Structure formats: C-alpha cells, structure tokens
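dumping this here so i dont lose it
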C-alpha cells in the first residue's frame, strides 16, 4: 500500500492472514501505517448433519434449522410444535468449539429458533443421528421406551436429545442435573415421572442405575470423518486446513453477514446504523417477538472477542457480550468464592428460560430485548441492575462508553454494540437477594422479579442507600428511590420494614397489559419480596418467619408404583412397553406431517379475523397473491359448503366465514392461503386483510354471558331424582348456598391440527388426518368436495396427542385440504402454527355452579344446582359435554334428592370442545366444593364428612345406575392406613403452628367415574392371519393417540390366538375398512376394539378348530399353512356394539387420592410435596400403561387447577394466552415431589373387557383434591392472622396470583 504522507509503496513485514491486521511504519518517513487484509466472502454454508457434510448455496436467512432438517434433509424425527422454543419437541444437539477450553462441547438447542445460516461450521445431531431400531439404539432412546416414558411420542425425540446433550457434556450427571436439563421440554401425556425415572438411571447417584457401557453412552452412530486419525466429524475441511471466510448472503428482503472480528462488526453496524439490522446470536428473541423483520441480520455467534471472561483484583467480573447465559452461570459459580452475590446471580439465572435457550442465547441479547421492548420482564436486567453491574458499549465512530443499566435504557444503540458486562463483588456488610415469582416453577417469565442490595452494620443499621430493582410492574424495570431513601441510615426494624413497604407499594405507577397479572397482585409482590429480602439480611429473626427468608429448594422427584399381574393371562396383564415406543424414541415413528412431501405439493394456512362479533365486510388478498410461491387464496364464498357438517345454525360452525356473514370470535378463519411451502403460506396469511363492520362488544367470559343472558336455546335435560327439590330442602336441618366456577384449558397436544390430502387416479382423495374421528372426517370431506364418501379414504396411524381436541376440531384442517386438493388436483397439507391452533380451536368448557344444598343429620339430603357452561361461539360440542358432566354431578357421594339444571351460554370465543374428562372434571370439582362448604359450615373435618357420605353398594346414582359393585367405603379405610393419614395430618398441623409465611395443606378425596363400552361404542377390528408365516396383521376403528390402544390390542390378539407379541402387527385405521365407527374418546376405545378383536379371534379359532383336532402336534405356522391351502378364511372382522347399561354405564372406576402441599403465603407459589393415588383398574390389560394414564391424566388435571389460564382481550376478543410464552401447562417441576400410584389389587371387573377397567380420564378428576389442600393452607394462614371469613370461596385455577390475593397479605403483618 502507499504511505499517505510520502507515497512510498510499503509492504508488511509479515504475511497477513485473512481478516488480520499489522501495525508498521513507513521506511521513508516513519509514518505509522496499519495494514489490514480483506476477508474473502462466501455464500456457501457448510456444516455437518449427523456426521454428513452439508453444503447449502445461498441459504435463506430466514430459514430455521428445523425447516432444513425436516423439509430439505427429510429427517422427521425432529418435531415442530410451538415454533417458539417453549415446548422442546424440536431440540437437537449442537457441537461447537468452546472458546475457553478449546474443546468441542455439545449443547441442546431449539431447532425451531436456530437459523440455518447461523450453523456455519457446527456439528448438528438429531435423534436419528444417535441410533435407530434398524441399527443400534442409543441407551437413552432405549431406556426411555422401556421405562414407559413415551406415550403419544410427540415430545420423545426432544426429550431424548436434551438428555443426550447432557450426557455429552457430563457423562456422569447427578439426579438433580438430569431433572434440571429437562426444563425446556413439555410432555402432556406421561406426567413426567416415567421420563424422569428413565433418565435418572444414568445419574451417578441413581437409585437404580442403568446397565450401559460408557462407549454406548457417548457413541454417535454415524460415519465419522476419515481425514484425521481422531475420527471426528467436520463440516467441509478439517480444522488444520480451513481458510477464514465470511458468510455473506443477499436475499430479496433480508441479507446476512458474518463479521470476522470486533472491528469488522463495529464497521458493519456503523455503516448500517440507519437501517433496521439485527445482531443474531442464538435468535432466541424470536420466540417472544416474532415480527422483528430486519433487513440485515449480523451473525455474531462466532466472534471470539465477545466471548472472554476475566476478573479484577477487587473481585469484579468482566463477561463478554458473546458469553451464553449457560456459560455465564458456570463462570459465576466458578468465581463464587470472590463474592456471595455471584452464586445468588447464578441460581437466579437458572430460572431464565430453559436449558436449550440458555445454552445458545447470550446475556447481551436478553438485555437488548429490554432496551427495545419495554414490557419484556427480563430477569437478567433486573438482577444485574440490582447488583450494580455496568455495561460497556462500543461504536466504530464514537469509541467506548460505560453505562449503568438504567442509563442504557435511554441510550440510542443505533451504531453501537454491547461488548461486555462488569459485575462488582460485594463489600463487607452487603446482603444481596433476588426473587422471581412465576406461574409455574420453570421456563416461565416472571410476574415480578426483584434484586435488592442492602448493607447493614453490626447494629442492623442500613449503611448508604440500598439498591432495590423490580421488574414486571412498570414498563421497563424500576429502581426504588423513595423507599430506598427511607431505609438509608435507619435501624432495620419491623416498623421500618412496614413503613418502607407501604412507601414501595405507592412508589411506582403500574401498567397492566394483558396477560400480565393484576395490579393489586403485582403491587403486593413488591412489598412481600422486599420483606423477604429484609428477613434474609437480618442476622436474627423469629423462627416463625424464617421460612420466608430462604427460597424453597425443591428436592429431586421420587415416585412409587405398585400393581399386580396374572402370568397365566400373559401377554394380557403383562407390563409391556408400548409397541411403538422404540420407534417414537428414535424418531422413526411417522405422524401425519412426517409423510414424504410429494412433488407439486401445496401447503395451507388459515387467515384469522382480528376482531370478534362483527360482520366480515370485505377481504383483500392481493398482497398475499403477489408473494412469491403463493398459488391461491380460498375464501368462504368459494366453498359450496362452508360448514364441515353441511348446514347452517348455532351448531354449524363454518370452516371459513363468508364475506357478508358474522364473525363471532377473534381468530375465526375466513380464508386459506395455498403456497409452495408451509413457511410461505404462513407468511402470506399475515398479508391478507379484511374490513369489519357492525362491530359489537365482545363477550369473552362466562360471567359476562350470564349477565347479558347470552344463552343458547338448546338446553340439556335436567337431572331430577327423588322428591321435589324445594320439599327436600325444607326437610333438611342444615342448608347452605354458594357458587363456584372453573376456567378453560387448552389441550396442548404436541402435534397441532394436521391434515394432508392426495388426489387419486379414480378422481377421489386419500386423506391423512391427525384425528380421533375417522368416519366423520370422511363424511365432512365429502360434503366439502362434493365427492362421494366412497371415493375418500381417510387414513390415521397415530396422533401426537389429542385429549378430545381432535374429535370434532380436526375437521377444519381436514375439510380444507380435501377441498383444496380436489380443486387444484394437487397434494395439499396443512399444519397449524401453535398460535393459529390456539386461536381457531376451542378448549375445555368453563363452568359455573350456583348451589343450594342441605343435610339431614350430617348426611346429604338435597342438592339443587344451576350449572352454566361456556360453549363459545357455537353450541356444537356443548350438549354432549354438559350431558357427560351431569353423569358426574354426584362426584362420589350419595344423596336421595337431586336437581341439576344446565344452561349453555354463548360467548365470542372459539367453540369449546371435548377435553379429557369433558364436563366431568368441572362437575367433580363443583361437587367437592359443595362437600367442603358443608363440612366447614357444619364444623366437621372435611375428610370425615366426605367419608360418611360416599356411596355404598346398592345405592342408586342420579342417572339411575344401581351400584352393584361399589368399594368406596372399604377403599377409604384401606387408603387412610396406607398413607399414614393421622400421623401426616398431625405433622401438617404442627408445621403450620410453627410457620407464619409458609403453610401446608393435606386433603383427601374419593373418585367415582362411569365407564364402559355399552351404548356408545360401535367399532370394528379386523384380524388377518398370514398363511405363509403365521404372523398376524390387525387394524381397528380406534386411533392410537398415546393411550396405548395399539399395544393393548396386540396383547389381546396375541393372547386369544396363543401367539407371541412380536407375531402381531397393528396397522393404520382407515375409513375404507372401518367406516361408520364411533370416534376414539371416552377412555374406553381400547376396551371396545379389544372386545371386537376377541370376537374376530374367536371366529378364526372356530375356523381352525377342526384342523387343530386332526393335527394336535402341529405348530401354529403349520396349522395356518394347512388352512390357507384348504381355502379356509384366515381373516375375520369383529364388531363391538353392546347395548347401553342401566344408568348409562357398564361399571364405575373407583379410587382415592391424597395431596399434601406447601404454599408460600407471600407469593402464592405452591409445591406439591406428596401425592398418593389408589386407582381401580380392574384386572389391568397392561398395568404399566395404565399407571402412565393415571399419572398423565392426573398431572393434566393439576395444570387445569393450578397453572393453566385462558385470557382474552376485552375489546377485540383476541386470545392473549396464545402460545408457550403466556400459556403454561405443568413442567417437570410442577408435578408432586413424591408421586405414589397404586393400582387396586385383586379387583377384577366382572363386567369389563377381560375383567379390566379403563384409565384415561378418571384420574384427571382426582386432581381437584389439590385445590382443597391449597385451600387448607390458605385457611390456616387466614386463621392465624385473624382474616378468616365464615367460608372461603375459591375458584379455579388457583394460580399464584389467585392464591396470594386470597391470603390478604398486608405490610402491617410483617414482623421479624
């Protein structure tokens, strides 16, 4: 280059590497010269996928790794469910070079968030890459299957990869580390216990260690690289000869660039400071803020200069902006000897997001989310600001600045980059505490978070001004000034704490954007978290308040299961793994969207209304149609039949609303976009707009519907038994009145509503749908297309969860793809995004009960109930739900006189539908509330009152069923002894006497649930014996949705024919073979298809009987070979259509449950310390599967009563809890810490199929008992503080907010 001063041509003294610089001097004039080598650019992305090199030319900067894995690489084991990093179904393992150690490190990552372009040089491993049933299964895969940890399988591959990643990082983890690593994985089926048990067998402190070789544990079963003797995989070139090159991609709407060093980054940012750019590290922010739409994405994930960590002599830590949250946690723990605050910060950071997020997300990215989004409740911002940490920011043109966190919020970051974080150590006398209150115990944003730093001298006098930072109460986090000044220089006493708490409560101006918690709750949390911190700072406090000073540390989960089996019946009664479990844990099991994408396929996405209760005036689809890849936009007016069931009326919800018709709820579909990829269809759907007229106020709650008398005309017949209810009530010696309500619940199936249709050569369609209802799906596809039903074959192999949500709600996707495929004569598929699914599809019916109930001599004598149920916008599924609920109106209690009147209400919300134990779950809860109210009013022990009123054998239910087999009275006494009820109740009472701010509750309840195959189920089973080898193919009219139907069916067929399980294969349900079958649901479909299978097998055995008589020594294979040669039919069709039994059910399932809980009165948070369940399964066909159903159903019920809340915007009617960010099903740390399930022994069911009883739905109802355990804890606190009303009425769900508000905590009660 030329010297700028004297024009002398100068060469650098050393050879420059690409992207490097050299500082030298001109030999002529001695001027300083900086040499910098240009960095070559490339547009080809290189990485490995399961050990195989991948080269992608000009990758789409918006394409996720998940989309590449599933649609380009064709690996369908990695699932896509929420697309926002909240469920874990998409987890893969990423191996990269660790900057600090220089070694390869493997971490879990959400492939739905990871951008493909950010995978340069990485080694990606999916579930297929570690093992398969065709080669060799990885021990993690095999152990999960053999421990019954996979039911529907929708979560299994993600679970496997989370555990696999942990074992790569830590081959001998502790049980605690195992439980911690699953904080980003949701399972709706199992209740988590079997998954935790399976994976904890790999722990170094395992109770029952897995017997595996270390080589098996670390082995990755793919072909290694052969370029180096180490055998490691690499992307393109071995590390010894890789040349530095910058990935640069130019696309139509967004470009991508990867800077090679910090100077390069600062130059890029400076030159684009007026553009909309985005620094990409883990891309995890898109899980929360999805519509960022930058024009330039700058990949900083591999910048070594941002990944340094070091400390000063005074203990201050410096952490680069490119350090992941997980690495920051590790570094803080490593340096905890320098300051107690470092471990406190690390413990809090473990509550941020999840392991897959923390492993790839940078702390700086989290802080920038706060800068750009005022309502983002960042824990990192709050705790670092509370620790008086500072940020260093750099600019190419303006140099370096150091900012405190609150100055950073006001700083214009255009052209600037966060480069490091500095965290000071504590000084003598400092006390640092942090808090986070969440709806569930992990992977959940905060209601309120806090960090408080206070310095006390030896006399407990506050030195200086405390730092007190609170997040979640106002836009951005807030730092206290008034309350902090009030504390400065004062001795910390109870009076001062009370005064400062009062000041704090009034110091900030709150906001309450939906779906944040209410202002009163968040205001109260400001004071209670402050109080907790003050207690923690004081050296001496009363033992009664000590539990508030220390956070509860949840121990490792444990569980016990017991059951009996009968070897003489094997394989029936044998605890076998699910027949598809091994395929599910290896990712080989195919679900609807996993089928091969045929050439020319189109993909569908629904367009949703953004306003409820209005008229659809017009639709503008022009912008969508101009988008590349968009083929068509279908409107409701285009379809000859808009309703799936081919008509109009209150029970006929249209697939697509026609222009000119009413839109009843926000989220209702009025158009469908067809495009060449699902991503393009989803994007184009957002470009379709509509005009709305005649907008009327929306009704979004059951109470609003009742107040506005928004009722459907069609009503459910009332339940009336015994005397006239007024007369019966007059005979009572004690009468109470009250009301109770319970909310809604989203099914949260991991596989959203999915369908695909293929035109056939005869002008028909093959329709694959994730549905519980094959026959009606065929009918409604016929209605929509005009094709005869005989030309539409619906195929259903398995569903990734359903829980009732795919009985009728699956018709929308199925009908639309059938119509579109028939219209375009092309394959069409539709996979609803989670947000789309939650907005369009109805959920569990909310219920309300107004009751007047009386007793006579402490026995139930008269029950008068007025029920209200929220049907949503249409009534279609509500009559059935209300009717089924009425069958459980008595819960498990006898009363001679009943009246239950039911009203179905209309709201401007999606049409609610069947959800596990539809109607029965709220019915049981409402009756249990009545029993609790009566016991409290009569001043008797609730458990004793319940026991004295349970059904006895021979009594008659309100539906007219005589209980010929009723064991409740016997079960109760047996259960009390088994769980040590008396001793535990005394221990709970003693705990409550010793603790003011944490209380325990202990509740027990019975369960009765009507079941049976009679009356409802009309299903068929085909059994075909292959005459060549004797193996058997089975197909039935029931659907495998995770409940183990295929396994139980195979067990029954094997037993009936005298075969081994491996000789029986269960195939897909098709409408061609099983038309006119009833839907899968109601817990008894497994029983019904088994009943039909027995019929079919008896036909085959009868046909083979003559041959067996003549050839007694012949093997099975020889017998069926002879039959084949003689033309004997080796196939049979069994049919189940039993008449309905008296009172509607063949039998009842009985059970008992006890819950012991601990409640933090100051925050409302709950820990379930122990749950005991005794469940009557008759002679279980497969006790391990039935225990899985008990645990899974029960935990789903826990979610309904404790963590899951459906909220709508009051103005537009939009669902605001429409994704994993706001909707919180239970996580693995929300289940009982001690979880004990026992199947009742020696209790064969004389009227059940093979003496069994069903298990899918009854345990869900048993979860209602947790409410009364929590209620006991609340009542204990209220009584101690003199706040107890005559009767404490509670409604479900009992979220932390609702619990804490019931506790009526006041700063005046704060003592030390």
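and the seq i came up w/
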């Amino acid at each position: 280059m030329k010297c700028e001063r004297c024009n002398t041509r100068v060469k650098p003294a050393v050879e420059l590497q690409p992207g490097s610089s050299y500082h030298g001097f001109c030999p002529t004039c001695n001027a300083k010269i900086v040499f910098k080598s240009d960095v070559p650019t490339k547009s080809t992305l290189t990485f490995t996928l399961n050990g195989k090199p991948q080269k992608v030319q000009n990758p789409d900067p918006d394409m996720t790794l998940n989309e590449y894995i599933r649609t380009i690489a064709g690996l369908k084991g990695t699932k896509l469910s929420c697309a926002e990093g909240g469920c874990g179904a998409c987890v893969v393992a990423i191996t990269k070079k660790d900057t600090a150690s220089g070694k390869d490190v493997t971490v879990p990552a959400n492939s739905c968030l990871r951008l493909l372009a950010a995978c340069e040089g990485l080694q990606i491993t999916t579930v297929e890459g570690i093992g398969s049933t065709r080669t060799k299964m990885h021990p993690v895969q095999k152990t999960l299957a053999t421990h019954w940890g996979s039911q529907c399988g929708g979560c299994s591959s993600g679970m496997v990869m989370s555990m696999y990643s942990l074992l790569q990082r830590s081959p001998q983890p502790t049980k605690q580390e195992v439980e911690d690593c699953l904080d980003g994985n949701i399972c709706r089926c199992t209740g988590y216990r079997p998954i935790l048990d399976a994976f904890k067998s790999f722990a170094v402190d395992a109770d029952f260690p897995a017997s595996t070789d270390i080589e098996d544990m670390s082995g990755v079963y793919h072909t290694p690289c052969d370029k180096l003797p180490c055998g490691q995989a690499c992307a393109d070139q071995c590390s010894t000869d890789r040349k530095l090159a910058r990935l640069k991609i130019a696309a139509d709407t967004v470009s991508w660039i990867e800077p090679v060093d910090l100077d390069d980054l600062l130059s890029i940012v400076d030159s684009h400071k007026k553009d909309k750019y985005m620094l990409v590290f883990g891309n995890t922010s898109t899980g929360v803020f999805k519509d960022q739409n930058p024009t330039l994405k700058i990949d900083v994930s591999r910048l070594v200069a941002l990944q340094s960590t070091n400390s000063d002599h005074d203990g201050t830590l410096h952490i680069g902006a490119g350090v992941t949250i997980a690495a920051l946690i590790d570094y803080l723990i490593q340096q905890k000897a320098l300051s107690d605050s470092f471990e406190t910060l690390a413990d809090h950071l473990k509550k941020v997001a999840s392991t897959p997020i923390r492993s790839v997300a940078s702390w700086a990215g989290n802080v920038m989310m706060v800068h750009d989004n005022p309502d983002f409740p960042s824990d990192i911002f709050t705790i670092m600001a509370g620790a008086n940490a500072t940020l260093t920011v750099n600019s190419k043109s303006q140099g370096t600045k150091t900012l405190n966190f609150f100055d950073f919020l006001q700083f214009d970051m255009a052209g600037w980059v966060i480069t490091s974080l500095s965290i000071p150590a504590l000084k003598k006398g400092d006390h640092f505490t942090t808090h986070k209150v969440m709806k569930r115990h992990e992977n959940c944003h905060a209601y309120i978070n806090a960090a408080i730093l206070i310095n006390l001298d030896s006399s407990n006098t506050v030195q200086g001004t405390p730092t007190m930072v609170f997040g979640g109460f106002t836009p951005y986090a807030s730092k206290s000034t008034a309350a902090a000044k009030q504390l400065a220089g004062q001795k910390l006493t109870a009076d001062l704490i009370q005064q400062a708490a009062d000041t704090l409560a009034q110091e900030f101006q709150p906001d309450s954007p939906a779906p944040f918690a209410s202002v009163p709750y968040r205001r109260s949390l400001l004071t209670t978290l402050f109080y907790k911190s003050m207690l923690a700072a004081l050296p001496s406090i009363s033992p009664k308040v000590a539990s508030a000073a220390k956070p509860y540390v949840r121990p490792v989960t444990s569980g016990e299961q017991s059951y009996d089996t009968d070897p003489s019946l094997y394989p029936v009664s044998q605890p076998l793994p699910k027949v598809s479990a091994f395929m599910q844990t290896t990712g080989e099991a195919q679900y609807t969207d996993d089928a091969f994408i045929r050439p020319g396929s189109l993909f569908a996405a629904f367009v949703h209304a953004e306003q409820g209760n209005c008229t659809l005036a017009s639709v503008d689809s022009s912008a969508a149609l101009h988008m590349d890849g968009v083929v068509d936009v279908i409107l409701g007016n285009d379809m000859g039949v808009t309703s799936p069931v081919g008509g109009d009326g209150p029970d006929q919800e249209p697939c697509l609303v026609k222009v000119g018709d009413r839109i009843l709820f926000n989220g209702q579909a009025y158009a469908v976009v067809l495009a060449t990829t699902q991503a393009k269809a989803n994007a184009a759907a957002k470009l379709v707009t509509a005009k709305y007229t005649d907008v009327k106020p929306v009704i979004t709650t059951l109470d609003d519907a009742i107040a506005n008398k928004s009722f459907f005309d069609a009503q459910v017949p009332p339940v009336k038994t015994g005397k006239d209810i007024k007369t019966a009530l007059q005979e009572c010696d004690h009468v109470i009145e009250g009301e109770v309500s319970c909310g809604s619940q989203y099914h949260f199936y991991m596989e959203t509503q999915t369908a695909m249709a293929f035109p056939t050569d005869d002008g028909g369609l093959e329709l694959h749908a994730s549905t519980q209802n094959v026959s009606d799906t065929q009918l409604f596809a016929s209605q929509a297309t005009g094709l005869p039903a005989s030309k539409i074959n619906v195929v259903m192999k398995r569903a990734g969860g359903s829980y009732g949500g795919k009985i009728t709600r699956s018709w929308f996707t199925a009908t639309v793809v059938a119509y579109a495929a028939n219209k375009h004569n092309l394959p069409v598929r539709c996979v609803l995004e989670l947000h789309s699914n939650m907005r369009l599809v109805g959920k569990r019916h909310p219920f309300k009960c107004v009751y007047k109930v009386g007793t006579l001599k402490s026995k139930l004598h008269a029950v008068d109930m007025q029920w209200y149920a929220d049907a949503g916008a249409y009534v279609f599924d509500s009559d059935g739900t209300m009717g089924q609920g009425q069958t459980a109106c008595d819960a498990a209690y006898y009363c001679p006189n009943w009246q239950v009147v039911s009203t179905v209400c209309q709201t401007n919300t999606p049409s609610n539908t069947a959800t596990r134990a539809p109607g029965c779950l709220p019915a049981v809860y409402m009756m249990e509330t009545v029993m609790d109210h009566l016991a409290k009013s009569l001043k008797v022990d609730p458990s004793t009152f319940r026991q004295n009123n349970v059904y006895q054998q021979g009594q008659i239910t309100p539906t007219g069923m005589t209980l010929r087999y009723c064991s409740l009275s016997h079960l109760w006494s047996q259960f009390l002894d088994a769980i040590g009820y008396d001793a535990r109740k005394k221990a709970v009472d003693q705990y409550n006497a010793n603790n003011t701010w944490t209380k325990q509750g202990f509740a027990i309840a019975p369960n009765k649930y009507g079941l049976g195959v009679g009356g409802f189920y009309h299903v068929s089973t085909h059994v075909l014996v292959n005459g060549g080898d004797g193996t058997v193919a089975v197909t039935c009219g029931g659907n495998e949705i995770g409940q183990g139907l295929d396994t139980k069916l195979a067990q029954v067929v094997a037993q009936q024919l005298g075969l081994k399980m491996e000789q029986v294969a269960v195939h897909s349900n098709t409408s061609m073979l099983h038309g006119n079958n009833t839907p899968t649901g109601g817990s008894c479909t497994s029983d019904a298809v088994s009943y039909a299978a027995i019929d079919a097998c008896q036909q085959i055995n009868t046909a083979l009987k003559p041959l067996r008589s003549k050839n007694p020594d012949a093997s099975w294979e020889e017998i069926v070979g002879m039959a084949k040669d003689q033309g004997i039919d080796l196939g049979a069709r069994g049919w189940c259509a039993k008449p309905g039994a008296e009172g509607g059910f063949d039998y009842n399932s009985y059970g008992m449950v006890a819950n012991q809980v601990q409640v933090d009165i100051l925050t409302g948070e709950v820990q379930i310390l122990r749950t005991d369940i005794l469940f009557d399964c008759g002679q279980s066909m497969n006790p391990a599967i039935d225990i899985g159903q008990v645990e899974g159903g029960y935990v789903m019920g826990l979610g309904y009563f404790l963590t899951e809340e459906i909220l709508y915007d009051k103005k537009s009617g939009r669902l605001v809890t429409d994704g994993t960010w706001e909707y919180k099903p239970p996580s693995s740390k929300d289940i009982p810490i001690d979880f004990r399930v026992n199947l009742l022994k020696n209790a064969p069911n004389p009227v059940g199929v093979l003496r069994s009883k069903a298990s899918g739905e009854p345990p869900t109802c048993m979860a209602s008992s947790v409410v009364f355990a929590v209620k006991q804890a609340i009542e204990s606190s209220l009584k101690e503080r003199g706040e107890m009303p005559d009767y404490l009425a509670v409604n479900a769900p009992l979220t932390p907010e609702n619990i804490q508000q019931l506790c009526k905590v006041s700063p005046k009660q704060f003592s030390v």
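The chain is about 30% helix and 20% strand.
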